[in-house]
Design a protein that fits this description.
two-stranded antiparallel ribbon; Rossmann fold
Length: 210
């Protein structure tokens, strides 16, 4: 059984979708721990209710980013994970931390990367006049919001959309593609060749609008 550690900062809706899919679909894996950098993160209660170990590594308790990264890595390594999943984890991780988990560190970003890395992705897509928006699951590299793309989901930007409306529609798609990407990882169904991720069964790595 592969071991998954999930990092969150808030309500953990993507974490929840992964935990539920893992149980329902009977993955060859289990979520062994959920770690937050914020003591009040709502997702911690859900994890505890599902008998998943929880821990808080409060970034405010550390004088430097490097010190926080080291403490976080120590907490993760206790769990001997095969995969580390960032699910709404709102801290930028240093290059040394990222390299420590190279090839087994996943993130989801609410845009169609490489467009709109960073914050405020939905408003930026609206302001740019984009007709499509979406979300991207990718392997994490030291460069922020870059790295080999595992799967993307596309949603239309509708007339009259504001940031909240577009965000809600994208999030619903995130809840579909992130569990799928994690399942592919723990089932060894992905290959990275020259920076391109291939699904070895030929499954689509693009979720189009319904």
């Amino acid at each position: 059984m592969k071991r998954i550690v999930i990092l969150i900062s808030g309500r953990g809706s993507n974490m929840r979708s992964i935990v539920e899919a893992c149980a329902v679909e009977r993955w060859p894996a289990r979520v062994v721990a959920v770690i937050s950098n914020r003591p009040g993160a709502g997702g911690l209660a859900f994890a505890a209710e599902h008998d998943i170990a929880t821990q808080v590594i409060d970034h405010k308790a550390f004088p430097t980013r490097e010190a926080f990264d080291a403490a976080l890595a120590q907490a993760i390594d206790v769990q001997t994970p095969d995969l580390v999943v960032l699910a709404g984890f709102m801290r930028i991780l240093g290059a040394a931390f990222v390299r420590r988990y190279e090839g087994r560190l996943l993130n989801i970003h609410p845009s169609l990367l490489p467009a709109f890395p960073g914050l405020h992705t939905h408003q930026r897509a609206i302001d740019a006049g984009c007709k499509l928006a979406g979300a991207t699951v990718h392997f994490v590299t030291p460069e922020l919001d870059h790295g080999p793309i595992v799967i993307q989901a596309v949603v239309p930007v509708l007339p009259g959309d504001d940031e909240d409306a577009l965000s809600s529609r994208v999030l619903a798609r995130e809840h579909l593609i992130y569990p799928l990407a994690v399942r592919w990882c723990v089932s060894d169904r992905l290959r990275v060749e020259q920076g391109i991720v291939r699904q070895v069964d030929g499954a689509s790595q693009l979720l189009l609008p319904a």
